[in-house]
């Protein structure tokens, strides 16, 4: 099951509203095939493992992180495929919260004399499926926040584009690969001109959809975001603009969504997230400057928050301090916490809910 979970991790953030599932099939203590959910959610892990196997699956044992689906959707049920292949035992870690499959597979397997065992590694697997549970059961999607700060807590350095080291920045790209969309502000795009893609060799295809909050559609057509919008999906939430700019951006294959404002005239962040979820995105990474991050923190919208802390101070070249947030939000907040060393820099991650 641990190996199946490793398979599932390969597709986390790349299956949209579908769960990222891992599957390993074993015969006489030898692994004969494995699979994971493919990009966009199909084929499913079990189907993928079965299809990849060149040998006969009679009397084998199948380990899968989530209960196999038993309903007809865009594909036929995995339970049927498992039964047809005469697999002898099925081990799944947790039941699928999707009502179309919840608790239905065991009956079908037992009818076909397939033994079933549930619950191996269930607490670890449940944790892994936090975003999937949230997608199925709540109004908002799973939201991660990320910020990079200097040792003296600044988020901006007037003399250097980068605050943290290369290893931290690589890790931030890895974070992008685990999310199906990344959200930022027009301010950050204007000042940093980012691409917001995952540029780790071999993981480029796991780049998230880019989502920009841009009140008046001021985004420049010479920005890296617009220049790469044919290759990487891009969505802009806006409040008002003129037809001409709307048409120009649409020609660049950018999806435009008119959004609601809150009483301050700013984007209503809850509403933006609800809309993002309705588009099928389950895991959102917010990567912006301190002001938009504060907007999310104040509304308690993050499920997890990652702070990359540099080992260097910026001093007089630093601005846009994160200090108030540190004091306000993390001091007495109930959260589980983990820390990773990154060649001097540190990554602190807080699970906030
Ligand atoms: N250290 C890091 O990790 C990091 C990451 C990204 C950027 N940065 C730096 O941060 C700087 C930009 O920071 P920033 O504070 O100006 O920009 P920001 O935090 O990225 O975005 C702030 C803007 O977001 C918009 N916004 C929309 N709805 C909001 C809401 N409900 N609450 C709060 N803001 C909302 C506002 O735009 P309107 O003004 O149009 O209302 C606001 O001005 C850049 O210099 C960049 O280099 C640092």
Brief sketch in words of this structure:
The chain is α/β, with parallel strands linked by helices. 29% of the residues lie in helices and 25% in strands. It has helices at residues 2-9, 45-52, 78-84, 105-111, 122-128, 130-137, 166-177, 186-192, 224-227, 243-251, 269-278, 290-298, 323-330; strands spanning 22-27, 30-36, 61-66, 89-94, 115-118, 142-149, 154-157, 181-185, 209-213, 234-238, 255-258, 283-287, 304-309, 318-321, 336-342, 345-351.
Record the SSE blueprint.
Layout: H1 2-9, E1 22-27, E2 30-36, H2 45-52, E3 61-66, H3 78-84, E4 89-94, H4 105-111, E5 115-118, H5 122-128, H6 130-137, E6 142-149, E7 154-157, H7 166-177, E8 181-185, H8 186-192, E9 209-213, H9 224-227, E10 234-238, H10 243-251, E11 255-258, H11 269-278, E12 283-287, H12 290-298, E13 304-309, E14 318-321, H13 323-330, E15 336-342, E16 345-351
Parallel strand pairs: 3-4, 4-5, 6-12, 6-13, 8-9, 8-12, 9-10, 10-11
Antiparallel strand pairs: 1-2, 1-3, 7-14, 13-16, 15-16
């Amino acid at each position: 099951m641990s190996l199946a979970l490793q398979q599932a991790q390969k597709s986390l953030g790349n299956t949209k509203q579908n769960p990222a599932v891992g599957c390993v099939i074993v015969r006489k203590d030898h692994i004969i095939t494995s699979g994971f959910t493919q990009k966009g959610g199909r084929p499913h892990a079990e189907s993928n493992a079965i299809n990849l196997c060149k040998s006969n699956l009679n009397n084998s044992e199948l380990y899968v992180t989530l209960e196999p689906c038993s309903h007809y959707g865009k594909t036929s049920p995995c339970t049927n495929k498992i039964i047809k292949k005469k697999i002898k035992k099925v081990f799944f870690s947790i039941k699928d919260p999707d009502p179309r499959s919840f608790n239905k597979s065991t009956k079908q397997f037992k009818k076909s004399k397939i033994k079933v065992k549930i619950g191996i590694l269930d607490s670890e697997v449940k944790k892994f499926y936090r975003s999937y549970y949230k997608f199925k059961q709540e109004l908002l999607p799973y939201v991660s926040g990320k910020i990079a700060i200097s040792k003296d807590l600044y988020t901006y350095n007037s003399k250097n584009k980068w605050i943290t080291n290369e290893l931290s920045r690589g890790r931030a790209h890895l974070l992008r690969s685990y999310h199906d969309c990344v959200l930022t502000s027009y301010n950050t795009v204007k000042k940093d001109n980012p691409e917001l893609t995952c540029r780790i060799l071999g993981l480029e295809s796991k780049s998230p959809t880019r989502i920009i909050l841009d009140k008046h559609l001021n985004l420049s057509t010479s920005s890296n975001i617009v220049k790469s919008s044919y290759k990487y999906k891009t969505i802009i939430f806006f409040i008002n603009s003129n037809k001409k700019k709307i048409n120009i951006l649409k020609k660049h294959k950018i999806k435009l969504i008119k959004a609601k404002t809150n009483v301050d005239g700013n984007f209503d962040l809850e509403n933006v997230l609800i809309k993002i979820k309705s588009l099928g995105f389950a895991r959102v990474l917010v990567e912006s400057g301190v002001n938009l991050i504060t907007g999310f923190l104040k509304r308690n919208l993050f499920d997890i928050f990652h702070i990359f802390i540099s080992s260097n101070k910026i001093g007089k070249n630093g601005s846009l301090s994160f200090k108030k947030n540190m004091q306000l939000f993390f001091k007495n907040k109930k959260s589980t916490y983990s820390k990773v060393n990154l060649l001097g820099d540190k990554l602190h991650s807080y699970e906030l809910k």
